[in-house]
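User: My collaborator sent over this chain with a note saying "see what the structure looks like." That's all I know about it. Can you take a look?
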Amino acid sequence: MRYWRAVEYFSPPKVEAVDPNNDVRAVSKGRPLPWEAGVLATPRKERIWRHTVYAGIFETRKVREVLQEALRAPESEHDLDGRVKGTSALLSFGVDEAGHLIKESITLSSCAWAVSRTLTPGPDDDAWLDGFDDDQEKLLGYLFEIGDGRIPVSSTSEAAGRGLGLVAGTAARVALDVATGGISALPSVVGTIAAPTVGPIAAKVIEKIGDSLAKDANDTINATVKPKLSRNGKDTEPESPEGDDSSAPTGLGTKVLTVDDLAAITRWVAETLGLAEALEPRNIRVKSRQIPLRTADDAAGDEFLNSFYAPDLELVAVSLAAGDAGKALTDYLRDDESIDMAQRVDLRRSPATVLRTLAPDAMPLGRWPSPPTEPLALSQQFAINEIFNSLADPAARGLYAVNGPPGTGKTTMLRDLIAAIVVARATRLARLKSASEVFQKTPLAWTTEETVKKYHRKLHPLRADLTGFEIVVASSNNGAVENITLEVPASKTIDLETFPDADYWAGPATILTGTSCWGAVAARLGRRSFRQDFVDRFWWGRTSGVRTGRNPPRWSGCIRS
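Assistant: Without extra context I'll predict from the sequence alone. Here is the result:
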């Protein structure tokens, strides 16, 4: 698992090449940024500009060079398959149409962090690639302060000769303020210090002007960036040195970002991680796109800089090491030597097993509403019965594999499994006296950045015995998954002559897919735009201005209360 995680860390997504025709621009001193007036055309009606900054562009081949040196790979393996072209970035973050940092969008490249860890402490360290989330949280805390204008930057010719050199044509960097002892602009900067009180990453932002001043700066950072601990032992919000700015939208930086700001952020991250020489990340790019005005609060957008798998792989690795991984995972990972081959059954030589599994009392209560004259094939029904009878119990855990070439009826089999699960849940729902019994009496309560100190959001979760019926279709082939989610709800998949009244939220399902549907039994989710499209169409019945461009006939109702 940790090897797989390492592969994910060192395989960063590519950043798009500079192409003004595609609204991807290079950042350079003296050139206006995309959010400055007159650079971009006026957005279309009900649209607004959003920008993604890719700070610290580096060539991915340099990642391999670092690994080859650190792992002492033999020369025969240096070329491998040669697929090392392209560029990635140290970090990415969103900027709104006015040039303000969108805090929730900041992402540190796990690849850049992993390269930093490869340089120090190195692959021989037991915790070589452990701790990304903690380090990212510390580092991003300081970027929030830069975005709010609480950590001004300086631009000096002296800085250009140190560390990374010019970034986007400027020597801007974060520095200490001699007058205040805090983080501020400084005309001259020299060296860095280690400060255990703020951790190794945070310490490197502090420029050494003198030991006493550096110590004061540590205290300032701790008081400003980290939450203070009140006398009653509860965390409180950090105080702003400039006071609250209620005019700024929640989550946005309060200053308009400049080229110097972008360069200072890039330089600080590169030098903090010790990557100035190894990756030479001196360039910055900005990708601009128009988004619907009503989704302007969708801060993070669809951009990604890291693997979706790495965090889960870490959870899996920790669970395996602790011996508390689930049965399905342990069954999947166990080696052949641990399997009792004598317990395997060849169904071709054991017809009694087939007959027992296909007995009437072993059949699920649900069946897909297909023509009664077209039942599943024997092998398909066998698989359905085995899956349902072995895994349907709420306490059951495990894995069941069905293998078949394309066109052999796997999707058809999946439809019957869906029907069996829906009917099993309906059986439990039918025992309830009222719809309100579906929910737990004690609500979950939480606050958000918008509601803190005002009110709690509340939600009554479903009863535990009514959960566990969910299905996730996942595949490395996105097209295959999308085909299933669009095909299963379609009216053409059922026998309307035999089942003319089949209706399982047919209206919302039709709005959702843009084609005639009989039931809302599947939805295309995954990326953020797909999830937003689902909410707009299924829950609110909206069809105008949605991302996919489909415009089915409107339905008279929608799913909402």
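A starting point for your reply to your collaborator: The CA atoms of residues 191 and 527 lie 43 Å apart.
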